[in-house]
Amino acid sequence: MDLLGLETFCAVVDEGGVLAASRTLHTVQSNVTTRIKRLEEELGAKVFFRKGRGLSLTPAGRVLLGYARKMLQLERQAMQAVKQLADEAGEVRIGTMESFAAVRLPDLLFRLRQQCPKVETRIQTDTSESLIRMVLSHELDCAYIGGPFEHDDLICTEVATEQLVLVKSKTLHCVNTLIVFREGCAYRERAHRWQRTYGTSFDLMEMGTLEGILGCVAFGLGVTLMPVSVVEKSQHREQLIYEEIDQQFACIPTLLIRHKRLSRLLGVEVLQQPLGVLN
């Protein structure tokens, strides 16, 4: 199958239509339509249902999508491997929890730049659950997640241990609201375990950013569980106090995960360098 046709097919799926895909691929709509038509002729099956201006995947299209992504990923890996042999250059796509990005990732990226100056990095922050999914689907080359975690298709290397603490406002106290990240965050799951074990009843408030959570805590809108390393570097530090919690809930490992099918990861020696206990 033509890789250009598969790339076009994936772009139409990801962008939600022919027009958006044409913009992503820097081509005209007619080229996108022609490539999809050729792909369908080669397969002998329709890959999209057409409903007015909208498109949805046919059963054949859903089957093709998984294989198409794998084939495009293999093409990318092959090109990257050959380029690495030539000049030790390439791109690595790194996913990370926001807390790790705020405290530890800048130093790691600096070391990576020093040791592998020709390696370009693309960074994406998300919840641990989403990062795992993206590594499994080859949307990311590796990711830093909150553990513990194991998966048959992934290499999981522990790089650090975070110490979670209970964070409160120094002057304003609202202790009946627990402020957490959205669903899929490893710290959120740990906070729920801590809450259930001690039988403490909290209302739940979700926030999307570290500083958003700590800002709300600083103003007495609730409490949170957060790595002490993050609290110490927060712009709200002077308005916050924190206390230790039981070690069974406080200690949470940070893992670097990567797919076993990824033959080589650029800069892996730097990216999986042990950082110890973060406090």
Q: What attributes characterize this protein structure?
A:
26% strand; globular; alpha/beta; 279 residues; 12 helices; Arc Repressor Mutant, subunit A; D-Maltodextrin-Binding Protein, domain 2; 12 strands
What is the topology?
Elements: H1 3-15, H2 18-24, H3 29-43, E1 48-51, E2 54-57, H4 59-87, E3 90-96, H5 98-103, H6 105-115, E4 119-125, H7 128-136, E5 142-146, E6 154-169, E7 177-180, H8 186-198, E8 203-206, H9 210-218, E9 224-227, H10 228-232, E10 240-244, H11 247-250, E11 251-259, H12 268-271, E12 276-278
Parallel strand pairs: 3-4, 3-5, 6-12, 7-8
Antiparallel strand pairs: 1-2, 5-11, 6-9, 6-10, 6-11
Helix pairs in contact: 1-2, 1-3, 1-4, 2-3
Mean pLDDT: 88
The number of distinct helices, counting runs of at least 4 residues, comes to 12
Give the DSSP E fraction (strand runs of 2 or more residues): 25-35%
What's the Cα radius of gyration?
A: 23 Å
CATH homologous superfamily placement of the largest domain: Periplasmic binding protein-like II
Structural class: alpha/beta
Please tell me the CATH architecture of the largest domain by its name: 3-Layer(aba) Sandwich
Fraction of residues in H or I helices: 40-55%
Number of structurally distinct domains: 3
Number of beta strands: 12
Poorly predicted residue ranges: none
* Overall body shape: globular
Write up this protein.
The chain is an alpha/beta fold and 279 residues long. The protein has helices at residues 3-15, 18-24, 29-43, 59-87, 98-103, 105-115, 128-136, 186-198, 210-218, 228-232, 247-250, 268-271; strands spanning 48-51, 54-57, 90-96, 119-125, 142-146, 154-169, 177-180, 203-206, 224-227, 240-244, 251-259, 276-278. It folds into three domains: 3-82, Winged helix-like DNA-binding domain superfamily/Winged helix DNA-binding domain (Arc Repressor Mutant, subunit A, Orthogonal Bundle); 87-161 and 253-278, 3-Layer(aba) Sandwich (D-Maltodextrin-Binding Protein, domain 2), CATH 3.40.190.10; 163-250, 3-Layer(aba) Sandwich (D-Maltodextrin-Binding Protein, domain 2). The chain contains twelve helices and twelve strands. The longest helix is centred in the first third of the chain and has 29 residues, at 59-87. The chain starts with a helix and ends with a strand. The mean pLDDT is 88.
